[in-house]
Amino acid sequence: MSKKNRPLSPHLQIYRLQWTMLLSISHRITGVALALGSMLLIYWLAAAASGPDAFKTAQSVIASLPGRLLLFGWSFALFYHLCNGIRHLFWDAGYGYELATAYRSGLTVLVVSLVLTLGAWAAGYGLLPLGN
């Protein structure tokens, strides 16, 4: 078969962006974000091991507005990746392939991820009564 007559594989320009496609891409992006965000955690731990001055600097970086925004995004990525991973486990077991179920479970993943993220941050700020 000559190069001219070779069939072309479908490209992204042919596909219409679908909800399930967006969630799949988001799952990959959050995996990368978790790996990169872990570097901030490693920096914080290394600063804690390096002494009080280094730890104070690390705390001020993380406590800044950009630092908190990064932490918020990282925590959302963590919960999203966890919830979507559980969704994938159900798929691996053969459940949830119906289109309506796939759309509903995707929306559930987003809502639960947001609730868990906001709940974790509220608990961290002492806004939730979690006991003594």
Automatic annotation (TrEMBL):
Chain residues that bind heme: H81
GO cellular component: membrane
Function recorded in the entry: Membrane-anchoring subunit of succinate dehydrogenase (SDH).
Superkingdom: Bacteria
Official protein name in the record: Succinate dehydrogenase cytochrome b556 subunit
GO MF: electron transfer activity; metal ion binding
Organism: Denitrobaculum tricleocarpae
Membership in a protein family: Belongs to the cytochrome b560 family.
